[in-house]
Amino acid sequence: MITNDAIPSFFFALAMVSNGSIAMAESSASKPAPRAAPSPKPTPVPKAASWADPFAEPSTPIKPGAGPALPAPPKPGAMPAAFPAQNLPSKELEAFMKGLEGRWKCDTKFAAGSVGPGSQPLNAKTEVTIKKEFGGFSWHGEFKLAKTATISATSGVFQIGYAAGTKQATFLSYDSVGSTMMGAGTLAGDSVTFLEEGFLKGAKVKVRETLAAKGPKKLYHKVEIAQGNGYQAIAEDICSK
Q1: Burial of 117 (0-12, 13-18, 19+ CB in 10 A)
Q2: pTM of the predicted model as reported, rounded to 2 decimal places
Q3: Mean pLDDT, 10 residues at a time, over the chain (241 residues)?
Q4: What domains are there in the chain, each with its CATH number?
């Protein structure tokens, strides 16, 4: 069935046949259809920037010709390379301290002004004990100063060791009235003088302390304190076994 809407198209086809237009149509049909224009290439989507950790520390590039990297810091507790090893007790300290071992009874003399402003010279009695400790790495000492009419009884301890790096004897002491000292000194024959710093009855001071063997049964001890015009003697001990 042909509808009225199809009539114009139908007669248009017959007219083409009557006019010999079929060949033209065939020839046109035989020709290949023109190629469609190539579709434009899709625009590449830019790659997303790689994620960066905002808390990461930036790495500094090494410039050409840069110096060598610094060595890693030593681990906690590691001994520095330049630190002298001291695997055995000091023979020098052993030879010196051997003559000081034992129990000593001392006559102690305090200089004028040494136990207070305007104080007079004072005599007292002191007992001292010195013995080897820690396998010969140090010597332990104890002292007891007897009570007098003007001073109270005082006791304390001291330790004498050896520093191989400086080849010096070391000294550390503290007592029952809050005094504490630390220092070092070079062994010289049968004596040693320690240069110390610390606190004497709460006051910060510098002290020079001498210890010497005077024969097999004699011991000499002297304590000096730094004043404005040099060191002033405050106490001396003459000890015997």
Answers
A1: exposed
A2: 0.64
A3: 38 36 39 56 57 58 59 64 70 93 96 82 95 96 92 94 94 94 95 95 92 91 92 95 91
A4: 91-240 (2.40.128.20)
